[in-house]
Q: What sequence folds into this?
């Protein structure tokens, strides 16, 4: 079983980094979006739903991005701290975007988060590549 994992892993890292980011980020995003949507469907306000979603999914994202996308092997605590700062900036941007889309423009909450997901994909790739896992 271990041999099979290492074979799959060696094939995985032949995939270009940008594509690995889209695959792993896509999986992480789907999980995050489902949790957010579930919390909204449970009648939580978007501010609380967003906070809970980030608390649950940030660690998954940090560790999968660190290893399976950027193949970072540096100091874990330093990378973890930098990644948390990246996600903190992202949550602030997320709150601002949702405020504009939901409170000012009256867009559906789940649709608004879907729109932000597109923005955050580009933002997080750049910030992770240049700052978090550099």
A:
């Amino acid at each position: 079983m271990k041999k099979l994992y290492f074979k799959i892993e060696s094939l995985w890292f032949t995939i270009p980094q940008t594509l690995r980011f889209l695959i792993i980020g896509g999986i992480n995003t789907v999980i995050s979006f489902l949790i957010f949507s579930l919390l909204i469907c449970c009648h939580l306000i978007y501010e609380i739903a967003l906070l809970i979603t980030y608390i649950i999914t940030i660690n998954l994202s940090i560790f999968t991005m660190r290893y399976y996308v950027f193949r970072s092997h540096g100091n874990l605590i330093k990378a973890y701290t930098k990644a948390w700062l990246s996600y903190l900036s992202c949550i602030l941007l997320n709150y601002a975007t949702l405020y504009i889309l939901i409170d000012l423009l009256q867009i559906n909450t789940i649709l608004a988060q879907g729109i932000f997901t597109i923005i955050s994909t580009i933002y997080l790739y750049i910030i992770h590549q240049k700052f978090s896992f550099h």
Q: What stands out?
A: The mean pLDDT is 91. The chain has one domain: 16-132. DSSP finds five helices and no strands in the chain.
